[in-house]
Amino acid sequence: MPVQVIIGGGPPVPPEADHIAFEEAVYEAFIPKSGSTMLSVKAKAYDENGKAVPAAMTYSLAAPVPGISINSATGVITITDQAAEGVYTIEAEHGVFTDTAELTLSAVSASELDPFSGTTTVEAASGNVYSIGLFARFMSRYNGSEITLAYTASVFSVASINANSGVTITQNTPGLIKFIPEVEVSDGTVEILTLQATRSDSGDISMSYGI
User: What is the count of structural domains for the chain?
Assistant: First the structure.
């Protein structure tokens, strides 16, 4: 009767970490006009061959900073309107291994928020229904900021609003729509809202928008 010989036993031992590193050397974010916004940072562990291995990280700020906090387990950074512009150091730790990255904070100004600061003109004929799309570039600049869209409710009636994924409508009353985007697009153009509206008379109508 043949004899089966089993060498070794138990589950395979996972490879050990040789070093850790943040995915980015520099993270950038904008200070919201009001309230708070969030940014996620991440570090990974690597073995001696440079292959990523599972490892739990502990995140922290190198020094306490007013208006900035970080979740030690997830690496999610919360930035409030009390934060100041500057460059700050964030740290990751796994066992004896550590790594650092920079967090650069900038203030958001109206000029930087173009095109979400100004007016747009809608040409409308009486009784017609129009679909109006709002688009923006560099959406990471707007994340966490409440944007206001104002229009003349007496002649322009918004029947419905379709908010794209990552956009939260905070107010929808005649003449005023407010929303907060959380859209992960650092470059390029993305549609934010689509409005279905009816004009009660003919001519042009201006819609103003901004933070």
Answer: 2
